[in-house]
Amino acid sequence: MGYSKVNALLSSLVCVAAAALPALAQKASQDTSATQLRPAAAEPVATGHQRMLDLLDQIRRRGAVENIYTGADLHASEREELRTLPADAPDSEKARLHMLVGKDELRLGNNREAVEHLQAAYKLSDKGAVQPAFQLSIAYLRLGEAENCLAHRNPESCILPIRGGGIHREQTGARKAIDYLAEVLEKQPDSYGVFLNPGHLTARWLFNLAHMTVGEYPSKVPEHLLIPPERFEVKENFPRFHDIAADLGLNAMTLSGGVIADDFNNDGWLDIVVSDWSPGGQLRYFQNGGDSTFSEKTTEAGLTGLFGGLNLIQADYDNDGDTDIFVLRGAWLEEVGRGYPNSLLQNDGKGRFLDVTFEAGLGENHFPTQTAAWADYDNDGDADLYVGNENLASQLFRNNGDGTFTDVARQAGVTNDDFAKAVIWGDYDGDRLPDLYVSNFGGPNRLYHNNGGGTFTDVAADAGVTYPFKSFPAWFWDFNNDGNLDLFVSGYQWNVRDVAADYMGLPAMETELDSLYQGDGRGGFSETGSALNLTRITQPMGSNFGDLDNDGFPDFYLGTGYPDYEGLMPNLLFHNEGGKRFADVTAAAGVGHLQKGHGVVFADFDHDGDLDIFSELGGAFAGDVFGNALFENPGFGNHWIVVKLTGVESNSSAIGARIRAEIVEGGEKRSVYTWVNSGGSFGANPLRQQIGLGSAEKIESLEIYWPASGQTQRFRDVGVDQFIAITEGEEEYETLPHQPVKFRTKQLPADAP
Fold first, then answer.
1. Residue 752: band (very low, low, confident or very high) from pLDDT cuts 50, 70, 90
2. How far is the C-alpha of 108 from the C-alpha of 486, rounded, in Å?
3. Are 697 and 718 in contact (CB under 8 A)?
4. Contact (CB, 8 A) for 395 and 387
5. Where are the beta strands (DSSP E) in 554-638?
6. How many Å apart are CA 371 and CA 329, to the nearest integer?
7. Tens of pLDDT, residues 553-572
8. pTM, full prediction
């Protein structure tokens, strides 16, 4: 998507008034700290680190006038033009300026001012016009969100279908929205013949949602406008998860961003790092105390002043035994994004970080990006880095083994030169060399086969994996446990109309279905998504996968949406039913959050043996802040094992290693496979791997295959429900302590276990 198209979308976009609490709404886009970090030991800040702090502070200051999503001063001239407009100016000119300024106030989260301007535009506009009423309806919907989901958030807030604690206390906003949406639908009557008009289905969708927020769905929705209740109801048997982020202090108010769950201070417990993409959005570190609590340690971790970042990924790039972080910036900003650097944060092993981007050779060129992935593509024992850029050449940084990197993308033949939205590594043909998949938004996707010797060949067309044409998140996994890597690639659009059509049983006009390509292990793929019940319109951004019920088959969660405020659609959870079918269990699990979903992780934060889901929530615009969510897994009673691998000849993080657990369940022998990586392309799971074992009471054989060295380790009769550590080449594994804790929660609904 070019800069001009983004600008056009913004100038015509349907927005709503953001938070009624301006302090909340502006928090993400303004300077969050004037204090720049000095490491905990009070040593001078390293030159490269200080250089990054200075550069990010300059970007923060420029953001007010150049960032089209968060900049506070973008339309100062229009405000001045409206202020000085003569009293006898034409009504059409007054309406135009009020509409423009009103939409901009909505973007910034200045709720009351936005409503005033949009009301003025509505009164001055032609009575037959649809758009002024629609804009005002969205404004009032957002007012309702601000006064309820933000100001009085509880675990049921903004969860579709909205009921119980999710019903608004303050109902003025929603009721006003219903009135204006009714006007829109009256002016643009419901019939399939007007399906091509984008305002129609969107208004009907929001009309139903607004009635939910006041507890009057379906009873008060006219029959001809009603979306059938069964479309929202529980269809699958799956236990309910509950959002406990607020109780643990993890509901940080952010805009869109990434998340990593991993053990950054080497105490055995999974910590959380989250980002906020705004120029003044502070990178934040929450340390797991191992006692059912988290504590924010952002300052102690040396992160103060490290702003921005739409996505995050982790690896031990320098093989020193601790997990480092890579921060990605500049996405969706086109030319402006070329001024946004990425960051490589070196961990000292105690959860304290130093920005070494410039010293490592990663900071000489800045390109807009939000996606990158680690792998040892040349099998030399250290983690290399591929960065997928937007409408510019992507970069393959070969790890030189001395703390520095060299961009070899052009020599390797992997520049892509398209709008990359996801990049992932996986050895899909089993030749020990990791291959590279690139998901492009608005162009054919790439499957770069690793030829060895430092070169790649794009075989996507021959393999039949170029679609969806407009795609976003993607990942390699083995969804059916046949030992071969499969490939998931999502379809994406900025269009809630198609989501509404999906709920109404109508065909989508623009959004492509997600693709699930089943691999044969020899380089071939077949598309199986529809056959396995993946037929929903999803429009995801964030994504990840993990085995929630410990049955040995990975499930997945999608964080959905797009920048416009009317893009209210549920985040989605799909349960893998034995590798033969996927069931949409969103409603049953209670995880269908309507706020914009970005980084997603699956992780066992409380050591109770099941994976919880952390979702980074919040939108692109300055006013679209929201608190992050942590959905606690209620447990399923199946067995599991956690395996932490350490490479010796291979990269220390063991990225790319394959784990195979042979088990006997119900008298039948089967294998469960997983590959070491951080999961999906937007959100980073822990690098230690949790493997579901179903009802098996032991692991007959646990096999670790190390592609870089070609070694295979096997361990017999391994016990279940434990944490173990395996070092490459060692004959014995180490049992790790994993005492479970009980999270202290205080506001769960009555039906919580």
1. low
2. 42
3. no
4. yes
5. 555-560, 572-576, 582-584, 597-603, 612-617, 626-627, 629-632
6. 9
7. 999 999 999 999 999 999 99
8. 0.93
